[in-house]
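Support case: user asked for a sample of complex input and structure output to validate their parser. Sending the pair below.
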Amino acid sequence: MTGRGEEALPRRQVALIDLLDRLLSGGAVLTGDLVLSIADVDLVRISLRAVVVAVREDARWSFGPPLAEAVRRGEEPYDDRPPG
Amino acid sequence: MTTEHAEHTELPEDPERAERTGRARDTEFSYAYAVVRPAAGLDGDALREVEGVASGPVRLVGAGGVAAAVGSVPGREFSEAALRHHLEDLEWLEEVARAHHGVVEFLAARTTVLPLRLATVYVDDERVREVLRGGAGTFARLLDRFAGHVEWGVKVYAGLPRDLADPDASGPSGTGPDADAGPGRSYLRMRRREREDREAVRSAAAEAARRIEEAADGIAVELARHRPQQGELATGSGENVANDSYLVPGGRSEEFRDRVRRATRGLPGVRVEITGPWAPYSFAVLTGPEAPGGTARP
């Protein structure tokens, strides 16, 4: 069984900006003994000053979706439950 | 005689890290793409089909009942200093991003994945195992949560009415019904109309975003918001006013997309773009004390 529940759409090139939205602010950050964590890099510096313009002066989302707002009504945040 | 000086220009400033990454030139690091449960479909032979970052092969590194898909990358390219530098190089970034995505997609077609952030690089596999062991409980829970789900991206654009797309193209030329009112007044009137139109479209777009959220309720189990896209890479026409991701049971994807499309029908000047299915990148967020080395940001 696949994790998809459906066949992937026919191969197409995804837009780079959609990909970077997910890879630079999404994707779990496991620091541990990282060589470098992107979370520690000012996203403005990531190549994209004029490109992603992801970080504005007042950016509330500088580092991706805050969990509290990402989790809907009544849904428990991932880490609420005691370690299993 | 002095030719080796150039070799040392990339030394990082932090001495502790320098110690760790100083070996970078000769060594290989472990680039981790995603966490999965070791599954039958992911043995060495299956993974041989996929090519990772730096064209390298991908292997599973397991510990604590979970496994990371890992590939070796050249230290000279992925040392801290080199990474900082490369991340500003869009071509490099795109290449790595697409390779990373390729591996995640490959895995997602076969099992549930917890995608990791771009450039999650450890000095060796043993470090990867430590992180897996440390976060095993969290990873297992996230994988359970993601099982059978996909991410759909929904972007809402406020289009500009066609004739207003380039306000400078039609100046106060003195033709048409306003000609008698004088070019100055006609121009001001045009600008006001333009502003009102734009506001109308923006508020229609905001309404679209609201309706989409409502329509998604009952199907999507989570919502994550990205920053609206702007800048050179933002290719969609119009102004991106919402850039959201929904976590949706895979079996209800069609229904979800239908509902989203229907929800925004009839709103003038609004364009909705749906992307996906994605692996659950936008929902792979670890925060709190459980996150290994947690660096949650406000």
